[in-house]
């Protein structure tokens, strides 16, 4: 967390703005061989990695940010 590095190859990338701060969310399939594909997520802010590849619901991550819900 907090590492500066270049984003890895991903299948999807999107920008989200929370309380005036822009985050870049990347996702990639965890196991392409599965019938039901699962994804892992990675979150960047200002070129700094704030959440490394994590399986789960990225909405939970954004809901826990200190600035979430203050707009």
3D structure, described in words:
- The chain is mainly beta.
- It has one domain.
- Helix content is 8%, strand content 46%.
- The protein has 1 helix and 5 strands, in the order βββββα.
- The protein has one helix at 58-63, and strands spanning 3-4, 12-18, 21-29, 39-45, 48-55.
- It has a 5-stranded antiparallel beta sheet, with no helix packed on it.
- Strand 4 and strand 5 (48-55) form a beta hairpin.
- The radius of gyration is 13 Å and the shape is elongated.
- Residues 4-8 have low confidence and may be disordered.
Question: How do the strands and helices of this protein lay out in sequence?
Answer:
Blueprint: E1 3-4, E2 12-18, E3 21-29, E4 39-45, E5 48-55, H1 58-63
Antiparallel strand pairs: 1-5, 2-3, 3-4, 4-5
